Here is the input.
Amino acid sequence: MTPQTRRKPRLLVVDDDPGLLRLLTIRLRAENYDVEAADNALSALAAMARVRPDLVITDLKMDQMDGIGLLKEVQSRAPGLRVIILTAHGTIPDAVQATQSGAFAFLTKPVDKQELLDQVQKALKVSGFADSTDEWRADIIARSAIMEEKLSQAHMVAGTDARVMITGESGSGKELLARAIHKTSSRRNKPFAAINCSAMAENMLESELFGHVKDAFPGVTRDQTGLFQTADGGTILLDEIGDMPMRLQVKLLRALQEAAIRPVGSTQAIPVNVRLIASTNHDLKQLIMSGHFREDLFYRLNVVNIEMPPLSRRREDIPLLVTHFLDRIAKETGHQRFIYAPEAVELLVSADWPGNVRQLENVVRQNVALATSPIISVELVQTALGVGPARLPSFDEARDEFTRNYLSQILQITGGNVSQAARLAKRNRTDFYKLLSRHALTPDEFKQH
Here is the structure.
């Protein structure tokens, strides 16, 4: 899928009436929606993690768990995911309960086709899907289920103006996720500004955020506009919010309460219109208990929480990330693209990665800088990770490793041309293919794209 490709909206339709479920599915698929059908609420909840729907359409009256129960579970598991409720027993109390519980719309059966389609389009537009392509997430390299879940949450919350708290270990990609939320939000054509609350002195941080007027500080001879003004209409990321000094926490809280700021040295309130996203690798509740973070500010900022998983919980993304970094380095340098020996990839996938994605990129860059051939060996990876060499391999293991590296190098030289590679190896094509199969090598991986 190219960055500009629009995917179909994914709808999860739930109804215990098989005939109506089939009719709704056919009708919505005819309108170019990707539809997943479930005949009860429990099946729908089981399908949510796999399908990651953009909208849920559910019957109200069902056994085991009714539509209101499903709505509450959806709200708990995927805040921001819209739900349309259908019922053949439409009464005023039902409608009131559904809307008070947070349903996007309440429709009675038999459902008018056009009314249903209109409500589906409205719900998708409110969620931000109507303007969506996958370009917004192009900088986040992932295919793991856990990262897809986080991206789904980010996409849903981007359709609102709710404040977001992104938590996670250092190097896990919190700023990338914040930028992705901005890129798919209604504020995407306005500025995105990020500031690290732990990277500068208190007075400088205050000035950068809120601005200052002339003579506010010794030696200051001109006014400075802060991020709250320069990012007006856009998004500000307060990175490492847990390290913000207490005095500035008070000032930030006041700015959020009043939707206005006061530059340093000024008593004039200036209205501001920004969306705040905060991020931290600290446990803010622990900081609250120790008196280092304001509880009232925490609840102002932590409207929606998205926890970025460490790389150790998304290991299936590592080969994809490595390929991405190798492509980027080749493009930056204009040099030949490197590849990893299979054993080296296995080591990368199984490593601990306390520094997460940032550490992985640094290791790849170090490996490329020190590699003496186009094939990056397991020894280079061991050195970069600071781990000892592997046990002395057996004769058969050493022979297999030599053969695999030899075949990889020949395929690299020939750009994946098997006939040419077989001639260089002085083997017939049939035997060469058997060798490739035995050592799990695919010629297409070596072809230049």
Observations:
- The domain at 158-309 is CATH 3.40.50.300 (Rossmann fold).
- The first strand starts at residue 10 and ends at 14.
